[in-house]
Model the fold of this input.
Amino acid sequence: ECPYCEMLREEFLIPMIISGDYTDKIIIREVHVTYNEKFIDFNGTTITASQLAHRYGVTLFPTMIFINSKAKVLVEKIIGITTPSLFGGTLDNSIDQALAVQRKDG
Done:
C-alpha cells in the first residue's frame, strides 16, 4: 500500500537482485511491518516485524537498515526516497560503507 515502498522494490531492489552484481555482497530482505509477520531473529528466537522495527527505530517507510549477521547496525539507515534519480547512488554508497565497516570489524 506504500507507493514509495513499491518504487524502492521495483526500481531499485529487484533490478539489484536480477543484475547479480550484489549476490556476493549483501542479502536483501523485505519486512512488512504492517503485516506483523513472525520470523526467526538473529539469536534464534521468534520476533515480530513490529518488534524488529522498534529495535531499529523504524517509524517511517520505506526504511533501509544495513546490519551484519549479529544484528549490529553498520551504517546510518536510509529513510524514504527523497530524490529518485539520485537514490541509486545513495544506496550504493551505503552498501559500500557497510561492507567497509564489516571488513574492518571482522
Summary: DSSP finds three helices and four strands in the chain.
